[in-house]
TrEMBL record:
EC number: 3.2.1.21
Catalysed reactions, semicolon-separated: Hydrolysis of terminal, non-reducing beta-D-glucosyl residues with release of beta-D-glucose
Keywords linked to the UniProt accession: Carbohydrate metabolism, Cellulose degradation, Glycosidase, Hydrolase, Polysaccharide degradation
One GO term of the biological process aspect: cellulose catabolic process
Name of protein: beta-glucosidase
Amino acid sequence: MAAPPIRKLPPNFLWGFATASFQIEGSTDADGRGKSIWDDFSRTPGKVADGRNGDDATNSYKLWREDVALLTKYGVKTYRFSLSWSRIIPLGGRNDPINPKGIEFYSNLIDALLANGIVPFVTLYHWDLPQALHDRYGGWLNKDEIVQDFTRYARVCFEAFGDRVKYWLTVNEPWCVSILGYGRGVFAPGRSSDRNRSSEGDSSTEPWIVGHNVILSHAHAVKAYREEFKTKQGGQIGITLNGDWQMPYDDSPENVAAAQHALDVAIGWYADPVYLGHYPPYLHQMLGARLPTFSDAEWKVVKGSSDFYGMNTYTTNLCRAGGDDEFQGFVDYTFTRPDGTQLGTQAHCAWLQDYAPGFRSLLNYLYKRYRMPIYVTENGFAVKNESSLPRDLAIKDTDRVNYYRGVTASLLSAINDDGVDVRCYLAWSLLDNFEWADGYVTRFGVTYVDYATQERIPKESSAFVVKWFKERTQPAVPDLKLLSKSSS
Ligand code: PNW
């Protein structure tokens, strides 16, 4: 009997791989780059698990042509990367000078991608705040300053690259920026009430202030794009949020409620303001006067400030009511089911297990609640102990292949069986790279990086992902909207 025909992805579906500036570029003081908050933080003993920093990373500031060649060989439709704010404006502020070398670096990268038929998908902010803004006025803690400085930085980027870049992300994962940077203190700038971690910070107020200011900064950058650039440049712009599927531990009403509370704090904190125009009621209840408020004029800028839902997701948590962690909405997370079995295969990081059905559930939840086209901008897996294997074993990354086999099946079901409007899927990551506080020991790449030589070696997962998407890609259909814009 003949095999059933392969079900396809929608026409013009974008797929590819993602990275971020600080995780791959290295060359932290080349060509006039200013310091970012991750420079000193990662150099401070005790902050990064393996004691290493971002000075070399995968050396992509020098080896970017190799990265483009790799993407071309893989045959991706799109590549997501981020711009280093402090390469472009070394001191970061609205009156500080622009660094032409920084502009030139990204301009060359964008041109090379386009020359190879790869759509650039650009993040403005993936956590590397210029250190000067943190020193000058407290960075994300200072609403009036940061909104203006971020908007000016965004304008500089639209001006320099917007003729060629049609997909923009303002901020990557504001939950991580706020909670991990200003609550738990495990990410730069490392502020926390936990005095074992930090000598500065107030975890009961700062994360919520930072989150609030990130939302407003994002929204003003979008307003600038829409008012000053969109008509001419015709691109899409939005924010991207991390958020894992939250599943009740069992059927008890308190655990069913807990799963929703976990979603409200992890996702709704950002998505409800941006797409619905209010903070989740649970956040008001939990924080009271500690939750900052927007004026009516600010809500007008915030509500509707994203052209799509940018979704980063990695795992599923089983949720139980209780616990004392406000950053999880007073919900306990576990991977152990009531019967003692594990939800899925354990990754190298404690917070990640492979559970593909959660990916489909999350897509359905987000589409029902926010009614936006969804761009999956990150999804991936770190194989346990991968970095202690010799490289010819490390590239046989069966756990990662299984992970991608599961989520791609879930993706196709969500689109074709459930009717969810998903337009893009980006796997994290193109390369093994600097995994923040985990250093280089945790590897998320579909391409192995031998850090001694910076050699890039495709893992089996890259072959799986590439083949899967190529087999399900339909012939492109011209985008009439873009065509009529560029010909007018
Ligand atoms: C994301 N968590 O970070 C980031 O966008 C990437 O830069 C990063 O490399 C990737 O996911 C893998 O970690 C996260 O603690 C960091 O749940 C931490 C968490 C989730 C995402």
